[in-house]
Specification:
- The chain has 28 helices and 21 strands.
- The strands form four sheets. Strands 9, 10, 11, 12, 13, 14, 15 and 16 form an eight-stranded mixed β-sheet that branches.
- α5 crosses α6.
- The N and C termini lie far apart (70 Å).
- The chain binds adenosine-5'-triphosphate (ATP) and magnesium ion (MG).
- Adenosine-5'-triphosphate binds next to α2.
- Magnesium ion binds next to α2.
- InterPro entries: DExx_box_DNA_helicase_dom_sf, DNA_helicase_ATP-dep_UvrD, DNA_helicase_UvrD-like_C, DNA_helicase_UvrD/REP, P-loop_NTPase, UvrD-like_ATP-bd.
- Belongs to the helicase family. UvrD subfamily.
Length: 730
């Protein structure tokens, strides 16, 4: 019998899951076993074989990038458009619901999304207005408190406030919420909570979507929090409906957002809440080599309370995992850059390489080494394009343009560039706004007109108000790109950054131009944002929701840098895990709490299982991080890897380590003799026809495979295969 095309390239269990009759399903399986693939094929199957319209399907993914990929893959399988299908992150879908039903959700039509940076500033302002001592109360803590409560579905009035601390945080939450509502601002947690309340309290809206979405499919389910799960339940009739089906896909070993309220127990809860859930376990891994898989399996085996899964692969053993013990973080970064260069020289793509780290703070040194070696790279998360100062300035103008009540945007641009509105004037405006319970914009306008503000200050405020109103009128009929370009120029923002000197200022100007570019190329229909929005509102929502997955230089062949958290669900032929040291990974805080340590180990498992062909683990014995010099031991996770899977990179060059002049201290049994096999010596001066003169730093491998690292005076450090390097001794 010939196979249905959608079932080709699937194993028996995957096939059973994809072609199962309509029902609730749980696909529980380890990394790289094809869970996401099953989800994609299942969606295509539902449309093609069960004849469901894309209109009746909702798919939830963890990132916007994953959503775009999923839509692309389904369309490829189907050969037709799936535009009517709702697919996106929980936040993206919640946003879409709120836009469609803003009145029912008690939001202004042009409400804007507050990112976490803006949220923290806003909380800080609120705390100041409540006269709370900043030394005693931290805005960051308050933000955590508020978000955690929202993730649990709690409003201020639900909180008991049983002690002084909690009462104070409750008071901040309350005041913050009032300010957000007044300004038409919605933070990330609020998106979820408000969408939940909308579905819970409005039966017409709820029933509409229950009828619409016959199937809801959720990837990475192990990282859903309470409110997200409650959402899925509401939309699907809570397990009681016979016309709604939920498929969840996950891996308890990859749950890494417990610190943000995610609950692994949701997986169990699902099987209790929904009737006749069919559980499917996948065991074959298609991603990684045997070596990588057995190492990852050994590490995760140290956790208790696992649901328990065995993973195997038909793939070969592949290469061992390289372990590099660096002297310090600079040495680590240089080693990695050198390895990437030789990978690239062998004709491999840079996009196939990922550098994963525990903390965003680690990226700077890595970036420097890559810059020095002229290796293009791209960072996911952390330094998002839309988070850069100048881009946020521009976005704030745009936000204020569509919503004058947006206090956060008002604060950001009122005196950027400087227009003579000083701190004192602003204080008066803030006080006025608070006393009259009106937005800052209205307060500024009223106070200037009532002559509470006088002279230069009043004129400056009125000029600003006029500027915004004129911008709105003048650009109303422009295309999005032209509108944004005009705002950036007429607001004085562009001139301000052009007047600044230096490389940084140049980059800022380029980023502003890139923003206009991004607007020109923006297709709101590709971004799972509601079609009815104005292009500008759609773009602003996209900028707030997108998490740095697309950056300006999207199509360039570049190495990818990201935290271990943001690597979830992805795969790369070559993966570097950096900074695998006690105190950094596992993190210091997790060492004090056993639950957290298990979560760090799952994070390690996630990182290792991203690698397809080759995994390299590095750690530094000495590291300057968070402004402190620290001495570290190799992480316990390294000790949990079977020794036969590891290859200790034999030689560590100390010569390049910035803090020690000593050369030739070796690791793991490497010797001068072994080095001599290459015919070169550590520290020797050599000449290369193309790269010029340099110093021998390091070597690796043996026989025909042996390679040496040379620090060239002009072009920096490079790894060369000894057999082909054709070096002259100087
Ligand atoms: P993770 O837990 O990391 O999210 P996953 O279980 O979602 O992993 P996928 O990303 O779906 O795994 O699949 C891993 C890789 O294996 C992908 O490259 C996928 O295309 C491939 N793959 C999955 N199933 C098969 C199969 N039956 N035959 C060939 N390749 C497969
Ligand atoms: Mg997946």
């Amino acid at each position: 019998m010939t196979q249905h095309p959608l079932l080709e390239q699937l194993n028996d269990k995957q096939r059973a899951a994809v072609s199962a009759p309509e029902r609730h399903m749980l696909v529980l399986a380890g990394a790289g076993s094809g869970k996401t693939r099953v989800l994609v094929h299942r969606i295509a199957w539902l449309m093609q074989e069960v004849q469901l319209s894309p209109y009746s399907i909702m798919a939830v993914t963890f990132t916007n990038k994953a959503a775009a990929e999923m839509r692309g893959r389904v369309e490829e399988l189907m050969g037709s458009s799936t535009r009517a299908m709702w697919i996106g992150t929980f936040h993206g879908l919640a946003h879409r619901l709120l836009r469609a039903h803003y009145l029912d959700a008690k939001l202004p039509q042009n409400f804007q999304i507050l990112d976490s940076d803006d949220q923290q500033r806003m909380i800080k302002r609120i705390m100041r207005s409540l006269n709370l001592d900043e030394k005693r109360w931290s805005p960051k803590q308050a933000m955590w408190f508020i978000n955690a409560k929202k993730d649990e579905g709690l409003r201020p009035h639900h909180i008991d406030g049983y002690d002084f601390n909690e009462r104070t945080y409750k008071e901040i939450y309350d005041a913050y919420q009032v300010a957000c509502d007044r300004a038409g601002l919605v933070d990330f947690a609020e998106l979820l909570l408000r969408a939940h309340e909308l579905l819970r309290d409005n039966s017409i809206v709820r029933e509409h979507y229950q009828r619409r979405f016959r199937h809801i499919l959720v990837d990475e389910f192990q990282d859903t929090n309470a409110i997200q799960y409650a959402w899925v339940k509401l939309l699907s009739g809570g397990g009681e409906s016979t016309d709604n089906f939920v498929t969840i896909v996950g891996d308890d070993d990859q749950s890494i957002y417990g610190w943000r309220g995610a609950k692994i127990e949701n997986i169990h809860q699902f099987t209790r809440d929904f009737p006749n859930v069919e559980t499917i376990r996948l065991e074959q891994n298609y991603r990684s080599t045997n070596t990588i898989l057995s190492a990852a399996n050994s590490v995760i085996a140290n956790n208790s309370d696992r649901l328990g899964k065995e993973l195997w692969t038909e793939g070969g053993d592949g290469e061992p995992i390289d372990l590099y013990a660096a002297y310090n973080e600079m040495d680590e970064a240089r080693y990695i850059a050198g390895q990437i260069e030789s990978w690239h020289e062998q004709g491999n793509a840079l996009t196939d390489v990922a550098l994963l780290y525990r903390s965003n703070a680690q990226s700077r040194v890595l970036e420097e080494a890559l810059l020095h070696a002229r290796i293009p790279y791209r960072i996911y998360g952390g330094l998002r394009f839309f988070d850069r100062q100048e881009v946020k300035d521009a976005l704030s103008y745009l936000r204020l343009l569509v919503n004058r009540n947006d206090d956060a945007a008002f604060e950001r641009v009122i005196n950027t560039p400087t227009r003579g509105i000083g701190a004192r004037t602003l204080d008066i405006v803030r006080d006025g706004a608070r006393q009259r319970s009106i937005p800052l914009w209205d307060a500024a306008k009223q106070l200037a007109n009532e002559k509470v503000l006088t002279g230069r200050a009043a004129n400056a405020v009125l000029a600003f108000i006029d500027l915004m109103d004129t911008l709105e009128d003048d650009t109303a009929d422009f295309s999005l790109g032209r509108q944004v370009d005009t705002v950036i120029k007429n607001s004085g923002l562009m001139a301000m950054y052009q007047a600044e000197k230096g490389e940084k200022a140049e980059t800022r100007v380029e980023n502003l131009k890139e923003l206009v570019n991004a607007c020109d190329n923006f297709d709101q229909f590709d971004n799972a944002v509601n079609e009815e929005l104005t292009p500008l509102n759609a773009f602003l929502a996209h900028a707030a929701l997108e998490s740095g997955e697309e950056q300006a230089d999207e199509h360039q062949d570049a190495v990818q840098l990201m935290t271990l958290h943001s690597a979830k669900g992805l795969e790369f032929p070559l993966v570097f895990m950096c900074g695998v040291e006690e105190g950094l990974f596992p993190s210091q805080q997790s060492l004090d709490e056993s639950g957290r340590l298990a979560e760090e180990r799952r994070l390690c498992y996630v990182g290792m299982t991203r690698a397809m062909q080759k995994l390299v683990i590095t750690y530094a014995e000495q590291r300057r991080i968070y402004g402190k010099e620290m001495l570290h031991r190799a992480s316990r996770f390294i000790a949990e890897i079977p020794p036969e899977n590891l290859h200790h990179v034999r030689m560590v060059s100390r010569s390049q380590a910035d803090t020690t002049p000593a050369m030739g201290r070796f690791h793991s049994g490497a010797s001068h003799e072994a080095f001599a096999e290459t015919g070169y010596q550590l520290g020797q001066r050599v000449r290369h026809t193309k790269f010029g003169e340099g110093t021998v730093l390091n070597y690796e491998g043996s026989g025909a495979q042996s390679r040496i690292q040379i620090n060239f005076d002009d072009v920096g450090s490079k790894w060369l295969v000894v057999a082909y390097a054709r070096l002259d001794r100087c």
